[in-house]
Amino acid sequence: MSIETLEKRSTSRKLAPRYRVLLHNDDFNPMEYVVQVLLTTVPNLTQPQAVSIMMEAHNSGIALVIACAQEHAEFYCETLKNHGLISTIEPEE
Question: What are the pLDDT digits (tens) for 35-82?
Fold first, then answer.
């Protein structure tokens, strides 16, 4: 198989579209609770990252939690909502 054939094959494969999971600020959940929910919901998120996401949402009104495949994004968004947080997803540009 030639290198050109391999290159064509690899460039023609499309990546699955990614979605951004967004956390919105609210006036009723304590900051520590938001951090704990983020840590238990999103795998591999560190405490400093969770604090940073919570503070971004607190100060700006919205924060990016994670960008991932649509199925995972929907799961994270629903899990955050089930814990009383405000979350939405949107396609990544």
Answer: 999 999 999 999 999 999 999 999 999 999 999 999 999 999 999 999
Angle in degrees, CA 43, 48, 38, rounded to 5: 40
Q: Where are the domains of the chain?
A: 15-91
Query: Across-strand partners of 69?
Result: 18
**Two tokens at 10?**
């690899």
CB-based burial label for 82 (10 Å; 0-12, 13-18, 19+) = exposed
Closest CA to 77 of 47, 45, 41: 41
Are the beta carbons of 22 and 88 closer than 8 angstroms? yes
How many other C-beta atoms can be found within 10 angstroms of the C-beta atom of residue 13? 7
Fold of 15-91: Ribosomal Protein L30; Chain: A, (3.30.1390)
pTM of the model: 0.83
